[in-house]
Amino acid sequence: MHACVRRRSFWSLFLAPALASSLVACASIPHQRYALDRIEFEGNEVLDDGELEDHIASQETPRFLGLFPGVLDDYQVFDRYVLERDVERIERYYRSKGYYRARAHAARVSRDGRHVKVQIVIDEGPPVLVRRVDVHGLEASPPELRAKAARLVRRGMRLERPFEEERMHALEEKLVRLLGAHGYAFAEVKSGADVDLPKGLAAVGFWIEPGRLARLGSIRIEGLGKIPEGPVARALDLTPGEPYSLERLEAARQAVLDLGVFSSVTIEPDLSPQAAQAAVVPLRVKVEVTKLRSVRLGGGVELDSLKADVHLTGGWEDRNFLGGFRSFLIEAVPGVVLYPTRLPTLEAPRRLLPQGRLRSEFRQPGFIEARTTGVLRAQGSIYPLLLSNDLPDDAPVLGYRELRGSAGLERAFGPLNTSLAHTVQQNTPFTYVGALDPDLVPVLVSYPELALALELTDKPVKPHEGISLRNSLQAAGVGGDARDVKVATDFRTYVPLGRKLTLATRASVGLLFPFNYGETVEPVALTGNPGTSRQEWVRDSELMSLRGLFAGGPGSNRGYAQREIGPHGIVPFYAPGVTSSGLDAECATLTAGTPSTCDLPLGGFTLWEASLELRFPIAGAFSGAVFTDAADVAPGQVQFRFGRPHLSAGLGFRYDTPVGPIRLDVGYRIPHLQAPAAPDEGTPQTTFGAPLAVSFGIGEAF
């Protein structure tokens, strides 16, 4: 079906109101030409369709929403002469990948009116394999450098693997960078290969001229305009006369970018013959100043099985606050929770629960030393604490007013970002609806935190390849009401399965070691230990709600609602004034399926999560994902219960926007792969009677 062809059909009548504005931009096929609807490849096993499409000139006509060609985009015209050259391009590309005997031909061109489908058949043939790799020219270099060069070449040109010209030439650049990191600024590398086509073998060689060890020369900074040079020179932290190091130059460039006032920074070493003769490398640092002040406005919607909220975002930032490249940010996020609206019932809201966040941040670059940034943060927020969508109508709706402040240092060491900060936060409870438990009091938590983040991905947003490792260590008890140690580790990988497919994985572990709370989680009775007073019980439960480990929800296990995985039981402050024994007796008389406060998440001390997600494009800004999530939260310390996987699988859709992907995920809890029947596990909610969880929001799950 072609949406812009002048014919009437059921679908065109049905979609006319929704697509009226888009159809105005319908394109038409040029006179006496044919639209290229589809290109199909047959016989290609080594290279996928997407990679081949990137190396030919013929392109398929884009389809709006993946269905309608010629809407918003022009038709791609079929040209048989271009197709003939594309066949040659495919063969050349195969040769660059080591398949010298590959042959391609356009086997079939099918026409349907003025629309064409092309089929290209490929015979890949056997590859030419790498039999030998040699490195010449480093005989007089330090042994450490020779060993690194040998390892680099062995990893790049593996024996008995197909010989790839692109990989060989890429190794030239990598060897130059390796030598530059060791002070050889004027190194030259050439490569070549002897190919024995009848035997299908290749011998590869690299010839290196390292040149002399170099030192830095004069440093000139350009493009500052009215910006003072002093803070930039301090961030560069480079001194004329010091040994040349490409790694030092890259770290200096990143440090200047981290000042936040430049949109681009380049460091250009002078590698002219005159500089090579003197073995001195002058530097030219070119910067482009970004806007020093900016205003941000936006909004968002979040909808899942626990709540629906609508919020706005507004912020102002000055990247040269009081001069010296100090940065000051203030941001407000006002919003409301539509209570009790949630998925899947979408019940009309009976109350609007105000929520919001106001935060500010001050950053002082070059604090203590050139590459360290001092950071001050302050935040005030108000939010409802919604633990279940299955509470009785007379249950209170609890909320918190939170004040948080922190002071710390940040320092980058290449791709490793480190942060050391001390945070103090106070949470004051209140109720939106109902009475506040008289035993529920404000809580003060004070803790230093060491955070490490190693980012080795190709892109910060929607990565396609690489790894990410993050770790956080908190030690509460420097003042405040809670004393504990909390560790969280998160490891992610992104593996490209072709040009357009990404296999993303995530594994997380959390450990909590409390010293003055947590006694009611691993219980003798679900209502707490027998000798515990109600006031102590409430305090213990409140600290667990703020510091405990929880799993489930859009950024965790998508087959469950937020906080739905792990120990469940009685949270006493949802029944104000009721004693431990009274609430226990009341819970014992309840029948299954009755809304109650007896089956609420308590939090735990040991968490593990794992996710596997295949991300694929659909059309334009639309993409999809198939995922599997598993997680568990245990009531014991260092208690990894892999026998309770809480396994869920599902399907998600994303639409890219300037503020991040809009995401819809549907997770299904796989029967018999959840958790053994246990009184402390809780009963997960259903969607339309099925073991499903649905979430809608902005941002990737990981």
Keywords:
single chain, 702 residues, alpha+beta, Ubiquitin-like (UB roll), 4 domains, 16-stranded antiparallel beta sheet, disordered N terminus
Task: Describe the secondary structure blueprint for this structure.
Blueprint: H1 10-23, E1 35-42, H2 49-53, E2 63-64, E3 68-69, H3 80-96, E4 103-112, E5 115-123, E6 129-136, H4 143-156, H5 165-181, E7 188-196, E8 201-209, E9 215-222, H6 230-236, H7 246-257, E10 262-269, H8 273-278, E11 280-289, E12 293-303, E13 308-318, E14 327-339, E15 351-364, E16 372-384, E17 397-413, E18 416-433, E19 443-457, E20 466-476, E21 484-496, E22 502-514, H9 534-547, E23 568-569, H10 580-588, E24 600-601, E25 606-619, E26 622-634, E27 648-655, E28 662-669, E29 692-698
Parallel strand pairs: 1-5, 6-8, 9-11
Antiparallel strand pairs: 2-3, 4-5, 7-8, 10-11, 12-13, 13-14, 14-15, 15-16, 16-17, 17-18, 18-19, 19-20, 20-21, 21-22, 22-25, 23-24, 25-26, 26-27, 27-28, 28-29
What does this protein look like?
It is a single chain. With 702 residues, the protein is of the alpha+beta class. The protein has four domains: 10-123, membrane protein fhac (Ubiquitin-like (UB roll), Roll), CATH 3.10.20.310; 129-209, membrane protein fhac (Ubiquitin-like (UB roll)); 215-289, Ubiquitin-like (UB roll); 293-698, Porin. It contains ten helices and 29 strands. The chain has a 16-stranded antiparallel sheet, with helices on one face.
